[in-house]
Amino acid sequence: MTARTVPIDFVRSAVATAERQGVDIEQLLGSVGVAPELLAQDRARVTVEQMAATVRQLWRISDDELFGLGPAPVPRGSIRLVGFGVVGCPDLGSAIHRFIEYRRLLPGLPPMAVTTTGELTRYTIDTSVLDEGEELLTVFLLAGVHRMISWGIGRRVALRQVEFPYPRPRNIDDYDLVFGAPLVFDAATAAITFDSDLLAAPIARTEEDLIAWTRNAPTDVLSRRDYGTSLAEQVRKILARGLRGDWPTADEVARRLAMSPQTVRRKLGDEGTSITQIREDILRDAAVASLVRGDETVEALSARLGFSEPSAFRRAFRRWTGSPPGSYRGSAP
């Protein structure tokens, strides 16, 4: 897997939440290695690790699994305790129903429901009880449910559809990183839809597994394993070899996919991207990750990424992120 980044919009949402609780924002950003000036750059990115560290700080500050944004506090560790009761279920269907029953013990969680209609099952979360405009928390909740389902049965779960009760955001491409599924915005409620036959899948985890999994939270919620649900993700996997040598050509990518180059271009266009854009995203994410780690000079990084000279890399990086490389240099906490 290549390095991934997430948009600054998610950090902005976290900062707004922390500000309402009187937190020193510069201190918060400094603790996770994000330069404050990046908040003003719409194209700025942070690593998944930096975003996960930000969420952990919000948990620490609020002592609330929902960062103080729900109808009542959900004390830290509550979800893990509920998980201990869920891992003992025989299959996914009974685990989901038990989790929804346990929700009554945690009034801070929004109302949830599951409905099965033929081959599809829909899990809904009523986010109307949350603070208005909290898109980050909606994404976090939907992704959290999806990750728990996949983790619980030890299988990749391809989502058939994901619904969001707010308008289409600017950073739409990043939602594929998190969900890798068809997206619907301005929906009546937040929801994920998956194949009903998964409900019979046995729960494959133990309490020890649960402890280990939650220890890594929320990193897995903010990223995504390769579920192969979009052509763009498959192309990214092929192109990523370019970070270790020569970049595959469009014809080579098409051959790997058993498609014609024209078909690849058309299908990627339907997904709102292209081979060129995916290659740029790979370079951008690799550059951000390296600069945050601070273990390469700009000269060495530009050469490794295939730029003819550092000045060309600097121009490209500013085009990608709106900021010079120095804004990210050595910012890891």
Write the layout of secondary structure elements.
Blueprint: E1 5-7, H1 8-20, H2 25-32, E2 45-47, H3 48-62, H4 78-86, H5 92-102, E3 112-117, E4 120-125, H6 135-153, E5 161-163, H7 172-178, E6 183-184, E7 190-195, H8 207-215, H9 219-222, H10 231-239, H11 250-256, H12 261-270, H13 275-293, H14 298-304, H15 310-321
Parallel strand pairs: 5-6
Antiparallel strand pairs: 1-2, 3-4, 4-7, 5-7
Task: Give a written overview of the molecule.
- This protein has two domains: 78-221, no CATH class; 231-327, Homeodomain-like (Arc Repressor Mutant, subunit A, Orthogonal Bundle).
- The protein has 15 helices and seven strands.
- The protein has helices at residues 8-20, 25-32, 48-62, 78-86, 92-102, 135-153, 172-178, 207-215, 219-222, 231-239, 250-256, 261-270, 275-293, 298-304, 310-321, and strands at 5-7, 45-47, 112-117, 120-125, 161-163, 183-184, 190-195.
- Strand 5, helix 7 and strand 6 form a beta-alpha-beta unit.
- The radius of gyration is 21 Å and the shape is globular.
- It starts with a strand and ends in a 12-residue tail after the last helix.
Tell me the overall shape: globular
* Structural class computed from helices and strand pairing: alpha+beta
Taken as a percent bin, the fraction of beta residues is: 5-15%
E-strand count:
7
Q: N-to-C SSE series?
A: EHHEHHHEEHEHEEHHHHHHHH
The helix content, as a percent range, equals 40-55%
The rounded Rg comes to 21 Å
**What value does the average pLDDT take?**
88
Work out the oligomeric state of the chains in this entry. single chain
How can the largest sheet be summarized? 5 strands, mixed
Q: Going across the major beta sheet, what is the strand order?
A: 3-4-7-5-6
